[in-house]
Design goal:
The chain is of the alpha/beta class. The chain folds into two domains: 166 residues, Medium-chain alcohol dehydrogenases, catalytic domain (Quinone Oxidoreductase, Chain A, domain 1); 168 residues, 3-Layer(aba) Sandwich (Rossmann fold). 27% of the residues lie in helices and 29% in strands. The protein has ten helices and 18 strands. Strand 1 and strand 2 form a beta hairpin.
C-alpha cells in the first residue's frame, strides 16, 4: 500500500531546520513511489536561506521581464523543504510507467525525506553510475557550466576560489583541460582535495594576507578566476588576482554589495555570472546554447569515463535522523564539511 505521508526536512525559519510529517498525494498511473537511500543538500543556495540572507525571502522575480521586484505582499518563503538530490529504490509504479520497475535504483532532484511520491519522469535509472556519482551530478554540472561560460582554454592560468563541491569539480575540469589551476581555501581538507584533483598550486588566503598581490608580482595575475564561494571578500580576491582584461566567473550567489570601482573597472575585467539552473532557464555561453539538462548529461558521462570523480568529496556521512544537526554543521563548521551525505538505512 502506498505511503500516506513522508518525513521531510523543513526549514521553518532562519536557523530552524526541523523534521515534519507531510501528507503525500495518492500516486497515479504516471507516478512512482521511491524510498530514499541517500540524500544531499545544495550547500551554497540552501545556506543562504538557512541564514536568512536569500533575496527571495522578501523580493519576487518577474520571469517575464527577468527582474527582481519588491514584493507587494508578504512572501511565503518559509517554511520550505530542504535538500537537493536523492538516490532511492522504486517501491511502486503506476500502471502507465514503463521505464522503471519495482526495486530499481534511481536518482532525482527532490527534498530530503524518507519517501517520495512523484511523476516517474522526475527520476532517472542509476544504471552504471554509482550513488556517489549520481548525487554529485548537480555540483559537477554547475562547475562545467562555469568552465564553458569562462571559455577556459588549455593555455589559461585559472584561480579557483570557494572549494566546496562546485569549486572542486571546477578544479578537476580545468586540470583535465590542461589549464594551470591555482586553488585557494582557508580550509585544510579542501586544499588537500584540490591538490589530489590536479591543482598545480594551493594557497591559504589566511596565511598569505594578500594572495592577489603575490600572484600579480610572480605571474602578472591569472588569466581567469572561477569564484564559487558566494562570499564578497573572496570575490574581491578573485578580481584583484586577475590580470588586465582577464575574466572572472561567478558561480557563487552573493547577498552583499560588490565593489566594482577598483580593479574590476580599472583593469577592464570581464565579470561573468554562471547559473545554468533548471529553475532559472539560463543557458551557458557558447556557439550552441546548453541548458541544465544538457550539462547534467555531460557531467554524468564525465563520471562514467573517469574524467571527474566524487572520490572523498561526500564527507561527512551522517544518518537521515541526524539531518537537523547536519544543517547546523554545514552552516557553522565548514572545516569539517565538503559535501554532506545522509544515509537513510
Amino acid at each position: 500500500m502506498p505511503p500516506a505521508k513522508q518525513r521531510v526536512l523543513m526549514l521553518e525559519a532562519p536557523r530552524q531546520a526541523r523534521f515534519a510529517y507531510i501528507a503525500l498525494p495518492s500516486p497515479g498511473p504516471e507516478d512512482v513511489v521511491v524510498r530514499s537511500r541517500y540524500s544531499t543538500f545544495k550547500h551554497g543556495t540552501e545556506m543562504m536561506a538557512y541564514l536568512g540572507r536569500s533575496p527571495l525571502a522578501n523580493r519576487t522575480f518577474n520571469h517575464r521581464l527577468r527582474l527582481f521586484e519588491r514584493a507587494q505582499e508578504p512572501q511565503h518563503f518559509y517554511p520550505r523543504p530542504m535538500g537537493n538530490m536523492v538516490v532511492g529504490a522504486i517501491e511502486w509504479t503506476g500502471s502507465n510507467v514503463r521505464h522503471l520497475q519495482q526495486g530499481q535504483l534511481v536518482f532525482g532532484w527532490t527534498p530530503i525525506a524518507d519517501v517520495h511520491v512523484a511523476p516517474a519522469t522526475n527520476f532517472t535509472p542509476l544504471g552504471d553510475l554509482t550513488a556517489e556519482q549520481a548525487l554529485c551530478i548537480d555540483p559537477a554540472s554547475f562547475a562545467l557550466g562555469g568552465i564553458i561560460d569562462g571559455a577556459i582554454a588549455p593555455s589559461d592560468s585559472v584561480l579557483i576560489t570557494g572549494l566546496g563541491a562546485i569549486g572542486l569539480f571546477a578544479t578537476q575540469y580545468c586540470a583535465a583541460s590542461s589549464a594551470t589551476v591555482i586553488a585557494a581555501s582557508s580550509l585544510p581538507l579542501r586544499r588537500q582535495l584540490a591538490t589530489s584533483y590536479g591543482a598545480r598550486e594551493v594557497h591559504d588566503p589566511q596565511t598569505d594576507r594578500d594572495l592577489a598581490r603575490t600572484l600579480k608580482e610572480r605571474m602578472g595575475g591569472v588569466d581567469a578566476a572561477i569564484e564559487c564561494s558566494g562570499n564578497v571578500d573572496t570575490l574581491n580576491l578573485a578580481v584583484r588576482a586577475t590580470r588586465q582584461c582577464g575574466r572572472v566567473v561567478c558561480i557563487g550567489f552573493y547577498a552583499d554589495p560588490v565593489n566594482l570601482g577598483e580593479e574590476f573597472y580599472h583593469n577592464r575585467l570581464t565579470l561573468l555570472a554562471s547559473l545554468p539552473a533548471f529553475s532559472w532557464n539560463n543557458p551557458v555561453r557558447g556557439a550552441r546554447p546548453l541548458y541544465s539538462k544538457d550539462l547534467q548529461e555531460m557531467a554524468a558521462n564525465d563520471f562514467r569515463t573517469g574524467k571527474i570523480t566524487p572520490t572523498r568529496m561526500l564527507d561527512p556521512i551522517m544518518r537521515f535522523d541526524e539531518a537537523e544537526r547536519a544543517v547546523q554543521i554545514i552552516a557553522d563548521e565548514p572545516r569539517f564539511v565538503v559535501k554532506l551525505l545522509l544515509k537513510h538505512d
